[in-house]
Design a protein that fits this description.
The chain has one domain (2-505): TIM Barrel. The protein contains 10 helices and 22 strands. It is of the alpha/beta class. It is globular and about 70 Å long. The chain binds alpha-L-arabinofuranose.
């Protein structure tokens, strides 16, 4: 377990790591990405055929390299809100025949020059797995079945043959499919009530699994702590006792999606806001268990996990979606991203996937320009986590002072602690232990007693900066990683407003 004990400001903080006490395996998919037809994410982000930086497919090579560096295991596509009016057939076949369409989520024009086959190719080049989201707005079940057939079928049937005709003999075997996106939101084209959604999702799930029982289906949740989440889980997390999916040992629904964006103009409410995401994971897990208990789902049916398929720092009033949502991230935001990731590791047992929203240009750590890519402040903790915090989440006990001021959302105060030192630990399959420590304090360096660290060479990676407000701009990347080593003896100082990763071989 990860425990936190609050201490007085004048006491010495401590961290005890237990590399042998495994909490749960960390699913690599928590380092997932998300590419939506929105702003400059697809066009001008991952796909820019007129750019000298593009490869023969029109894909930005620098973006591909960045995705490879991040080792992104899975990428969600094509939305987001965009998907609510997306007809996938518009985006396949000869480009000159593809229709341009009005786009109603972000009020643009969708040229459809990038579609399913281009996305699959991009995933192959990047070395990542596709995760597709179905149109629950203007889309039909027939269309969804046709897309699944196009992507996965090996049979001699119309849409599988259409894929072959488009030059793709082999199926793409897309495993992850989402049953809509944010269908509860008033901004959705064809917003649904929870009753209508649950009914529709269950029927679609049945049909989709009849066509391909091997897929993983993701139910559309809200934040994880709403009556929508409770209701749709209760209605849809059922034992497939009649074998509707062809398998009586499973459930039609495999995962439950939740989304949370956090932001605040003040540093401490901003950096501690992702504690809400961790509490949301705990609440969602309870609702999943409740649905299983109330519906009598036997323990032989694998427990549904959480698909946190949109998370990040985002204030839509300062970076509106219709204007491309190009957030400029500060060091404070980078610390918030680290707190999000700490939470995913601590709650590894219940998180089957998480996708930073988004991967390029739109509320993203990675920004393209004509000349190249800029790594925003938030890139650096994400990179360190993805590189080094895989394997298993391990127990850690933390004593530190706590932030006591205003939180955002307000309910964080009273439901979950807000430590100044936010910590998680992992043990990799290679035997290396990683200790991730976010010191959110704006004023205080903390000298910390660390137990469980091995004396000898400890690798130290620090993401920090002059002040919590610094941002990276082209030509001036003020926030990056500073590396050094430590001998593992005595107290270790975690500098104010910094993220530190310590690594040693167990
Ligand atoms: O990621 C940006 C948008 O945020 C997505 O399109 C939507 O699902 C969410 O509201």
């Amino acid at each position: 377990m990860a425990t936190f004990t609050r201490i007085a400001d004048d006491q010495t903080p401590s961290i005890i790591v237990h590399p042998e006490h495994e909490i749960a395996k960390i699913n690599d998919n928590i380092y997932g990405g998300f590419t939506e037809h929105m702003g400059r994410c697809i066009y001008g982000g991952i796909y820019d055929p007129t750019s000298p930086l593009a490869d023969e497919n029109g894909f930005r090579k620098d973006v591909i390299e960045a995705m490879k560096d991040l080792n992104v295991p899975v990428v969600r596509y094509p939305g987001g809100n965009f998907v609510a009016t997306y007809h996938w057939l518009d985006g396949v076949g000869p480009r000159e025949k593809r229709p341009k369409r009005p786009e109603l989520a972000w009020l643009g024009i969708e040229p459809n020059t990038f579609g399913t086959d281009e996305f699959m190719k991009w995933c192959e080049v990047v070395g990542t797995e596709p995760y597709l989201c179905l149109n629950f707005g203007t889309g039909t079940l027939d269309e969804a079945l046709a897309w699944l057939e196009y992507c996965n079928s090996t049979q001699d049937t119309y849409y599988a043959n259409l894929r072959r005709q488009n030059g793709h003999e082999e199926p793409y075997n897309v495993k992850y499919w989402a049953l809509g996106n944010e269908c509860w939101g008033p901004w959705q084209v064809a917003q649904l009530t929870k009753e209508d959604y649950a009914k529709k999702a269950y029927q679609w799930a049945k049909a989709l699994k009849l066509l391909d029982p091997s897929i993983t289906l993701i139910l559309c949740g809200e934040t994880g702590y709403s009556s929508w989440d409770y209701y749709v889980l209760k209605e849809c997390v059922k034992w497939d006792v009649h074998g509707l999916s062809g398998d009586t040992t499973k459930s039609l629904i495999d995962m439950h999606s939740i989304h949370i964006y956090t932001a605040d103009a003040d540093h401490l409410p901003n950096a501690t806001a992702p504690r809400a995401a961790e509490r949301a994971i705990q609440m969602t897990t309870a609702l999943i268990d409740l649905a299983r208990i109330e519906n009598g789902v036997p323990e032989t049916v694998p427990r549904q996990t959480i698909c946190f398929d949109e998370w990040n720092v985002w204030d839509p009033t300062r970076a509106p979606g219709e204007q491309g949502a190009e957030e400029k991230y500060t060091l404070s935001d980078a610390l918030a991203v680290a707190v999000f990731l700490n939470g995913f590791i601590r709650q590894a047992k219940d998180v089957g996937m998480a996708n930073i929203a988004q991967s390029v240009n739109v509320i993203s750590p990675l920004m393209t320009s004509k000349e190249g890519v800029l790594k925003q402040t938030t890139w650096w903790p994400l990179l360190l986590f993805s590189k080094y915090m895989r394997g298993a989440s391990v127990a850690v006990n933390v004593k530190s002072p706590e932030y006591e001021g205003r939180t955002n959302p307000k309910w964080v105060r009273g439901t979950i602690e807000t430590p100044l030192l936010d910590v998680c630990a992992a043990r990799g399959v290679d035997g290396w232990v990683g200790l991730a420590v976010t010191n959110v304090s704006e004023e205080r360096d903390f000298e910390v007693r660390i137990e469980g660290v091995k004396e000898g060479e400890v690798k130290v990676y620090v993401v920090g900066g002059e002040s919590v407000g610094v941002v990276n701009t082209e030509g001036e990347e003020k926030v990056g990683i500073v590396e050094r080593t430590w001998d593992g003896k005595g107290l270790f100082t975690f500098g104010k407003h910094s993220f530190t990763l310590l690594r040693w071989k167990a």
